[in-house]
Design a protein that fits this description.
Structural class: mainly alpha
Oligomer: single chain
Distance between the termini: 21 Å
Shape: globular
CATH class: Mainly Alpha
Strand content: under 5%
Helix content: 55-70%
Largest sheet: none
Length: 147
């Protein structure tokens, strides 16, 4: 994820280039809080701090603090990914999630840690593709190029 953003300055990382208006930093923040933290520490790990934040309906990762620098956003992503890895290292992939916020998802449900991991891989891969395209629009650079 972060490799696609290497060498971009703060201005480029904060500049929206798509009609939806999201920025590269906001996307990394979204993955940090709405994916790594929510799914692994919340849904799988039942972390009370994460659950409380969700139950308070705190803004998600798309709401990036304007005063937060890019390196801090990247550091938070790396740290949350490491915490997610720690949660997963203790899990049975066939186990049911220990916490499920029905008020967030309604009838939709993932029934096992394995399904959550696959959902997370899909979400991350989708957003990695978004970052590849946006990076090329910003400065013409491509992260992975096939001959």
């Amino acid at each position: 994820m972060l490799g696609a953003l290497e060498a971009l300055d703060e201005e480029a990382l904060r500049r929206p280039v798509l009609p939806s208006g999201w920025t590269c930093l906001a996307l990394v923040s979204h993955l940090t809080y709405d994916d790594e933290r929510f799914w692994f520490r919340g849904v799988i790990g039942q972390d009370p701090e994460v659950i409380a934040a969700v139950e308070r309906r705190e803004p998600g990762g798309w709401q990036l603090d304007a005063g937060l620098g890019a390196e801090e956003v990247f550091a938070r992503y790396r740290a949350e990914a490491a915490l997610a890895d720690a949660v997963l290292s203790e899990c049975d992939l066939d186990a049911a999630p220990v916490w499920w916020p029905e008020y967030v998802f309604g009838e939709w449900r993932l029934d096992s840690v394995r399904q959550i991991v696959l959902h997370h891989i899909t979400e991350t891969a989708t957003h990695a593709g978004h970052l590849d395209v946006v990076r090329e629009l910003i400065d013409g650079a491509q992260w992975i190029v096939q001959d």
